[in-house]
């Protein structure tokens, strides 16, 4: 059984127990982060922890662990579980008040912290060669999608709807415009060659990978337009791609059955993917 972290200590995964009254379980009252691991090293760890602090502030959720402690926990689990490539999942919930009550418990109830690792191939992903086929799906999520909460049922439903249509993933559409993918941010390259991604707002998660890609573009003096775009505009784009900690930059080659560009992964997506990975040696 792999090691996990639960509250105060490391323990084997098959011995980790959380109460049925935990607010994460009853109210999806919690936040999370997923940090990629490549060659046994965490990618953009500090940016993920900054976003965790931001999510906690938004929900008035206490985070009684220093970032240095969280880093120690991440690194220890990666080492003990011998993760070369994969991810570390951290979840913080509002703990166990011992009953079901909508109101937050008082500060004497400690939050529940769970950290575990997953090993999977994220560098050699066959989908990079083919590109993803994605479908649009109404964005039925709540109005604070900028907070990374564990309330992920709408994302699961969107992924299931995509699967039922034989697609790889879904992008959410709100008021005729793409917000983001079910678990990634969305970009396109216009016919004129401009890179476009939606501006940050409560409608999308401020992706760590998105921010890194914007930073790379700035360094290379590539122009970026931060604005929303419609599925119709995306269908006429040269390229579409999505970004997340676990997919890095992933080309999208079909949208609702329509080929994007020539129907193959584009050069901008591929070079940004390589530039992103090059940052971590
Ligand atoms: N998801 N938008 C949503 C809705 C997400 O769930 C994610 C990440 C992103 C990309 O953020 P980042 O680049 O910081 O990973 C955007 C993670 C990977 C998940 O739920 O597994």
TrEMBL record:
Cofactor entry: pyridoxal 5'-phosphate
EC number: 2.6.1.42, 4.1.3.38
Superkingdom field: Bacteria
Any one GO BP annotation for this protein: amino acid biosynthetic process
InterPro entries: Aminotrans_IV, Aminotrans_IV_CS, Aminotransferase-like, BCAT-like_C, BCAT-like_N, Class-IV_PLP-Dep_Aminotrnsfr
Reactions that this protein is recorded to catalyse: L-leucine + 2-oxoglutarate = 4-methyl-2-oxopentanoate + L-glutamate; L-valine + 2-oxoglutarate = 3-methyl-2-oxobutanoate + L-glutamate; 4-amino-4-deoxychorismate = 4-aminobenzoate + pyruvate + H(+); L-isoleucine + 2-oxoglutarate = (S)-3-methyl-2-oxopentanoate + L-glutamate
Keywords recorded for this protein, A-Z: Folate biosynthesis, Pyridoxal phosphate
Sample GO molecular function, one term: branched-chain-amino-acid transaminase activity
This protein's pathway: Amino-acid biosynthesis; L-leucine biosynthesis; L-leucine from 3-methyl-2-oxobutanoate: step 4/4; Amino-acid biosynthesis; L-valine biosynthesis; L-valine from pyruvate: step 4/4; Cofactor biosynthesis; tetrahydrofolate biosynthesis; 4-aminobenzoate from chorismate: step 2/2; Amino-acid biosynthesis; L-isoleucine biosynthesis; L-isoleucine from 2-oxobutanoate: step 4/4
GO cellular component terms listed in the entry, alphabetical order: cytosol
Biological function: Involved in the biosynthesis of p-aminobenzoate (PABA), a precursor of tetrahydrofolate. Converts 4-amino-4-deoxychorismate into 4-aminobenzoate (PABA) and pyruvate. Acts on leucine, isoleucine and valine.
Family: Belongs to the class-IV pyridoxal-phosphate-dependent aminotransferase family.
Protein name: Aminodeoxychorismate lyase
Gene source species: Mangrovibacter plantisponsor
Lineage: Bacteria, Pseudomonadati, Pseudomonadota, Gammaproteobacteria, Enterobacterales
């Amino acid at each position: 059984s792999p090691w996990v972290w639960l509250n105060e200590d490391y323990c084997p995964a098959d011995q980790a127990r959380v109460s049925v009254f935990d607010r994460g379980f009853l109210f999806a009252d919690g936040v999370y982060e997923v940090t990629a691991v490549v060659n046994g090293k965490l990618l953009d760890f500090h940016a993920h922890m900054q976003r965790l602090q931001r999510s906690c502030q938004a929900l008035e959720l206490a985070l009684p662990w220093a970032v240095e402690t969280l880093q120690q926990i991440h690194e220890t689990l990666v080492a003990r579980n011998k993760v070369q490539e994969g991810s570390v999942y951290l979840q913080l919930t509002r703990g166990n008040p011992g009953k079901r009550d909508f109101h937050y418990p008082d500060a004497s109830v400690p939050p529940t912290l769970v950290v575990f690792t997953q090993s999977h191939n994220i560098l050699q992903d066959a989908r990079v060669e083919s590109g993803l086929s994605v479908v649009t799906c109404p964005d039925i999520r709540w109005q604070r999608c900028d907070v990374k909460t564990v309330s992920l049922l709408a994302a699961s439903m969107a992924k299931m709807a995509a699967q039922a249509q034989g697609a790889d993933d879904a992008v959410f559409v709100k008021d005729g415009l793409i917000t983001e993918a079910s678990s990634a941010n969305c970009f396109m390259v216009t016919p004129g060659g401009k890179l476009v991604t939606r501006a940050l707002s409560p409608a999308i998660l401020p992706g760590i990978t998105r921010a890194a890609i914007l930073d790379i573009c700035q360094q290379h003096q590539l122009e970026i337009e931060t604005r929303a775009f419609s599925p119709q505009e995306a269908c006429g784009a040269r390229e579409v791609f999505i970004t997340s900690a676990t997919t890095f930059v992933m080309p999208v080659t079909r949208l609702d059955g329509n080929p994007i560009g020539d129907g193959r992964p584009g050069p901008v997506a591929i070079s940004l993917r390589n530039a992103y990975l090059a940052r971590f040696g």
